[in-house]
Write a structure and sequence with these properties.
Rossmann fold; 4-stranded antiparallel sheet; globular
Length: 288
């Protein structure tokens, strides 16, 4: 972290506008560790403003780009295979892309199942991991700037990435263009309107203003996907936790007793029937 701070001048910040609607009118929700989290008055998108001026450079060297397990359990492998079965329903050209693949487990498993795999990745450590796993088609540019042949992919995966991007909309527009008609985009991101966030407030574990700079909920994620052309959008949420964390310096915070704590497992098992889970999983299709 120290070398990144000296290289990227991490203390320098820049003001921005809403990535969804372009408005500059917002309300300040709270500040965490020097980062203001604001809500757009026009569309409801939550984002960090001001944000780090050299945010993309920070992502190139930050360890978060290569987060993930060094080895997978049988349960994790089975989960990836179940997800690939969903993508299999859209398999025509046999081309699949993952934006921000981290350790590369999803793409390497897809390759074993015969998919031709592509990756978009800028993190130096993650790129090395991909090469070591035999993934050769790597586009080493930012997610908002990558170039691919129009209509090349049957499916695109974007897992826990868009909250890191300066312009999620630019990334989604490029994803839309590079999908074939009828192709599938499948993404995951944090749910700002989750029960976990409501309970934990600014200290919630996923609020990290130097890293997670655009925060969606089920309404705003649909709005931004529709704005670039996606249709047949399905959103579901899952998971509940009471974790709190600070990042500068990084420290897990002890959670005081909460009346819901004894029911945490039950809530975790049932929250998927609501829109209050802390992780959103979204499917969106490009018009045929």
């Amino acid at each position: 972290m120290g070398s990144c701070q000296s290289t990227c001048h991490i203390e320098e910040k820049v003001h921005t506008t809403c990535d969804l609607c372009g408005a500059a009118n917002y309300d300040v929700l709270f500040e965490k560790e020097g980062f203001r989290h604001v809500c757009c008055r026009d569309c409801g998108l939550v984002f960090v403003n001001p944000r780090l001026k050299f945010h993309e450079q920070f992502q190139r060297v930050s360890g978060t780009g290569a987060m993930g397990e060094d080895e997978l359990s049988t349960r994790q492998i089975n989960r990836i295979c179940r997800e690939l079965a969903i993508f299999g329903n859209y398999r025509k050209l046999n081309h699949i892309l993952e934006i921000g693949p981290g350790k590369g487990w999803f793409l390497s498993t897809a390759g074993l199942l015969g998919w031709e795999t592509w990756a978009v990745e800028i993190n130096n450590e993650a790129i090395a991991n991909l090469v070591n796993k035999g993934i050769r088609r790597i586009i080493t540019s930012g997610a908002e700037k990558f170039e691919a042949t129009e209509g090349l992919f049957d499916a695109i995966r974007l897992w826990d990435v868009i909250e890191h991007l300066e312009s999620p909309r630019a990334c989604l527009l490029r994803a839309y263009t590079s999908l074939r008609p009828g192709g599938l985009l499948r993404l995951s991101t944090t749910n700002f309107n989750s029960l976990s966030r409501m309970i934990n407030g600014p200290e919630w574990v996923y609020l990290n203003g130097s890293d997670h700079i655009v925060l969606f909920d089920p309404v705003t994620i649909v709005k931004i996907l529709e704005s670039v052309g996606f249709r047949k959008i399905q959103v579901r949420t899952r998971s509940f936790n009471l974790r709190k964390k600070l990042y500068h310096p990084e420290q897990e915070l002890k959670t005081a007793f909460h009346p819901l704590k004894p029911f945490r497992k039950l809530i975790d098992e049932t929250i998927g029937f609501t829109n209050l889970g802390h992780q959103m999983i979204v499917n969106a299709v490009k018009d045929s």
